[in-house]
Amino acid sequence: MQADLNALAVLVLVAEERSFRAAADRMGVTRSAVSQTIRRLEETIGIALVSRTTRSVALTEAGERLYADAAPALRDMQGAIEAAANLRGRPRGQLTLAVSSIAESFLSGKLLSAFLEENPEVTLHVTVTDEEFDIVEEGYDAGVRLGEVIAQDMIAVAVSGEQRQLAVASPDYLERFGTPKHPRELASRRCIGWRRAANVAPYRWEFEEEGRAFSVAVADTVTTTDMALMIKLASAGAGISFGMEDSFRTSIARGELVPVLEEFCPRFPGFFLYYPSRRNMAPKLRALVNHLKVAARVAG
To answer: What is the reported pTM?
Structure first.
């Protein structure tokens, strides 16, 4: 049995007004429409809910019981609707994001800290993950990924400038084994690779030469799901590693790592915040989008 929730709402009004006419006036419909709605509800349930006379309306025992159970539930539902509608006014509530672990600029802390300062009623739940999944199906408000892996039906807002992948090694490693001149030499070198999960193939080492993209199958001495460990091993001289330039930037600045094969490492569009639709966007998400756009203009 599937009762019409609208009919329950009509029954509640009739019970409170003790009148079909008064209930109809509150709803802006005819008395006949109210009467027909109650009759259909009674037919669905299979028992009389309202006793009608020419002068008054009273609930039957079944009607009283249904009213007692339905009225609080309907008030709770109305309260939930009003609470959701109130979120239209200003950014508040929890904003859930799924962010790639290599989105260094977004995860640096400064961008999100400034956003929270501007929006004190918003809380953030950030899942740092490199798993590929449907953010809508998993209940996230938005995600941050490289533009090339975002589905075309998503809205995307840039959160970084152009990126590039770099091959890097420690000065000690290069002194002992020499600097490679071409990516094909990597096949015979000690390499440290990254993979997003233990059951997934290691990240491909991709290069470009004279406008032609190609990848190199390296024999990884080490593969790891931990980017920090990969950087530590490369800095310690364990081999050549490969990843996003932003991931290596601090180690390069300290002289712990040196870029190699840079002429084969082209730039490409960077990271984007993505979400499914602009229609009825929650204020908390709209606030983040606007914050990112302003930050991009300031940085540019």
So the answer is: 0.64
